[in-house]
Amino acid sequence: MKTTVSRRGDGAVIYATRTFEVYPSEVGEVRIHAIVDDGLRVMVNGAEVGRTNLPQGQLSPLTRASKTVREIVTFTIPKSVLMNGVNTISADTRVNYANSAAVLFDATVVARPAVAGSPSLPESPAVPPANVAGWGVPDWRDEFDGTKVDTTKWRVRTGDYQSYDEAMIDGARVKVQGGTLRIETTRLAKPVVKAGRSRAFSTGFVDTTGKLTKRYGRWEVRAKLPQKRGVSRGLWPAIWLKDVKTVGEIDLMESMGDPHQHLKTHPAGSWQSAVHGLTKPGGSKVKLQNLVKPATYIADDWHTWAVEWTPSYIRVFLDGVKMWDIRSAEHPWLKDSFSTSGVDLRINTQVGSDWMGFTDPKRPEETVLPATMQVDYVRYWEYKG
Q1: Quick one: 109 and 144 in the same domain?
Q2: 130, part of any domain
């Protein structure tokens, strides 16, 4: 990552970004050895792993190093911030005084092998049992134990786009690796224009169209979301059910990457579920939603989302705990919102929208990519009455 940059104007900071590949379960320790002149902050996948010669707290583009020095520093990268495969390291190097002619930064990432026989900590929360009270064992499932996407269960979309976001959908962004389905979002080398909108990103999208279409049942997905605190502007992962004939939609989970334009009502790290229905007489749209503000950032760990849909209710769970439900007797419009043909399951990450706000080309450091949504399994139980 060697970088020596001449400064222009009054700016105090120079940014550098590179990627490296590592699999946390296969290494004992990952360190960054860096040479810096003068101050340095290092981020890995959007999480700060260390700083030197810089004040504590938030840094602005004009924040300078606390002293003039050229030194070698070492930071250990916590395994909790690492992802299987490609990881992104970002560094901002800062001068000490206004007349500095240049800044210097050079770094090497070193992974040390794990000690043979050393125990590995399980990821939390633990994988829930497949046998669910009242539902039994799944009637359909994908545990992603193979080496490629099972196309008898999934349609991998490619070459198209969502009309309202900033990304192109590319099948190459979807793969199965290490026991998980991985949906990667990254930048295009050159933006393209589709539907009158510039699209600077590439992302993945899978669904069960033509594979699994059901009216009623229980769907369960264990996933780790792609956002990182403060550097995920525009990222919008979602797990949702869409009626194949009408506008009925059940959003099991959707979460906005931050910063975004609704932080007052949707704090960073929150997520929401929703049910969308038909248009009421008079033109008002039917929608019920529930916002969950967890104590911890929802994308920091693995979580299990589930929805139960019967003729009587729609019920949403997080990690086995009921979040909310909708009773058909109290909302008779639910009956007309979904056809008898059933719904498809969809899992994807979009980038930007009018709802959450778009990315800012002038602030690429607010959208650190690549970012990967990981899915451990998907399970479905038939509704048997």
Answers
A1: no
A2: no
Q: How many domains does the chain have?
A: 2
Sign of CA dihedral 208, 213, 214, 215: positive
Q: Are residues 348 and 255 in the same domain?
A: yes
Cβ atoms < 10 Å from Cβ of 151? 10
**Residue 135 counted as domain residue:** no
Which amino acid is present at 121? L
Across the beta sheet with 102-113, the strand order is 3-6, 102-113, 27-37, 71-76
In the DSSP assignment, the letter for residue 298 is: G
CATH code, domain with 97: 2.60.120.260
Q: What is the CATH number of the domain that holds 280?
A: 2.60.120.200
CA-nearest of 243, 206, 222, 214 to 349 is 206
- Evaluate whether residue 305 is within a structural domain: yes
* 185 shares a domain with 293: yes
Tens-level pLDDT at each residue, the chain (385 residues): 444 444 444 456 777 788 888 877 777 778 887 766 678 888 888 888 888 888 888 888 788 887 766 667 778 888 888 888 788 888 888 877 655 544 555 667 777 665 444 333 334 445 677 789 899 999 999 999 999 999 999 999 999 999 889 999 999 999 999 999 999 999 999 999 999 999 999 999 999 999 999 999 999 999 999 999 999 999 999 999 999 998 889 999 999 999 988 888 889 999 999 999 865 555 556 788 899 988 789 999 999 999 999 999 999 999 999 999 999 999 988 888 899 999 999 999 999 998 888 999 999 999 999 999 999 999 999 999 8
Q: Is residue 54 part of a domain?
A: yes
| pTM of the model as a whole | 0.68
Cα dihedral across residues 92, 95, 101, 103: positive or negative: negative
Domain extent, residue 22, equals 3-113
